[in-house]
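Re: weekly structure request thread

Next one in the queue (265 aa):
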Amino acid sequence: MNYLFSPDNWEWLWTGNNFRFILEGFLINLEIAFVSIIFALIVGLGLALLRLSTIKPVSWVAGAWVDIFRNLPLIFLILYFALGLPSSWKKAWEDAVPTWAPEAFQSGLVLGAFLGLILYNSAVLAEIMRAGILSLPKGQGEAASALGMTRVQALRYVILPQGLRRMVPATVSQLITLNKDTTLVSIIAITEVMRRGRIVTSSGFFQEVTAPILQVFIFIGLLFVIVNYSLSRLSRRLEIRERKITGTKLKRVGGLEDQVAIDPT
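Done, posted below.
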């Protein structure tokens, strides 16, 4: 314990440019997570609705898509897209990215990171969202139909607003996992926080003192704890707020990667 908390082993943090260097790397992780979260939510909702389609071929194809990407290792997807995408795609990405975009986005390799994170997490989110929709009583859809609403109108005005509230805790949990998974992009030479941590621990970089690897990664872990805990607290506040607005108790939909649809019966 003395080794862990000894001031001498933490001197690297305020020496030279180490603190700023690590924080800038962590910002890259947050930027990648932010873009991936937006598209994963959009694609995930689309896949969930396709899986619930009354057109059997559409539902089957969407289900197969979800099952494939949900069960592939994320690190495999990131490596596959980073190495397997055509060079013309990467070049087109680099040409299309505006100069004001974050530096990490300028590389064509980040396209593989985005595709891997979005496809994997959208498949997991699709199951969470589908379970949230199916957890509603059948009477909700029947009541909407009795009022003359079409299936699309019932989904938009009755089912989705209630289902989305139910799936907030599980959805936020998956988004927290997505944020942590951004550390995997270091394997394709993106200099995010984990790679920068290893650089700091290397001799002769920025520091005039030794940067012990344990303390460096404890500090990086603390950054993730702060952000992810803030997300979980935000989720809790949203859940409480919705309960107060609706005056009802919401049944939680739990589960992450092994989320399965709740039996509506």
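The longest helix spans residues 18-51. The domain at 2-262 is CATH 1.10.3720.10 (MetI-like fold).
Next request, please.
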